[in-house]
């Protein structure tokens, strides 16, 4: 779960860190039937997530393993039920405009 959380943070998504077992109960994630690139892939054992990664397309998932670091594997590389989770709009980062790109207050309006 730390790998997934770090990827969210690097992409400016403000979500709290949660252990793998808590992913299904988070209000900032919603279940989806088909994954899109960037969705969370949760592997479950008896209904409880034990491993999570990020869908990278073409039936592949990137995840951190204890023995191999971060790896891209086939979706079926881990046993158990698979669920796909997508970040909700509530977790979407607020776009910010760098100060040097902001229009000055006294600038004429565009025509």
Question: Would you give an account of this structure?
Answer:
- The chain is mainly β and about 110 residues long.
- The chain is built from one helix and six strands.
- The chain has one helix spanning about 1-10; strands spanning about 30, 40-45, 50-55, 60-65, 70-75, 80-85.
- It has a six-stranded antiparallel beta sheet, covered by helices on one side.
- Mean pLDDT is about 85; it is low at about 100-110.
Question: What distinguishing features does this structure have?
Answer:
single chain; 111 residues; mainly beta; 1 helix; 35% strand; globular; disordered C terminus
- Morphology: globular
Q: Helix and strand string, N-terminal first?
A: HEEEEEE
How many strands in all?
A: 6
The strand order across the widest sheet is 1-6-2-3-4-5
Rg from Cα = 18 Å
Question: What percentage of the residues does DSSP assign to strands (E)?
Answer: 35-45%
Poorly predicted ranges: 101-111
Q: What is the average of the pLDDT values?
A: 85
Biggest beta sheet attributes: 6 strands, antiparallel
Instruction: Look at the helices and sheets and give the structural class.
Output: mainly beta
Which percent range fits the helix content? Answer: under 10%
């Amino acid at each position: 779960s730390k790998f997934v959380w770090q990827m969210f943070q690097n992409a400016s998504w403000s979500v709290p860190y949660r252990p793998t077992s808590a992913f299904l109960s988070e209000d900032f994630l919603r279940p989806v039937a088909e994954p899109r690139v960037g969705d969370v892939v949760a592997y479950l054992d008896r209904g409880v997530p034990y491993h999570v990664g990020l869908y990278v397309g073409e039936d592949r998932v990137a995840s951190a393993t204890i023995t191999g670091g971060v790896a891209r594997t086939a979706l079926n590389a881990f046993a158990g039920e698979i669920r796909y989770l997508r970040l909700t709009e509530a977790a979407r980062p607020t776009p910010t405009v760098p100060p040097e790109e902001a229009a000055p207050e006294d600038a004429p309006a565009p025509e």
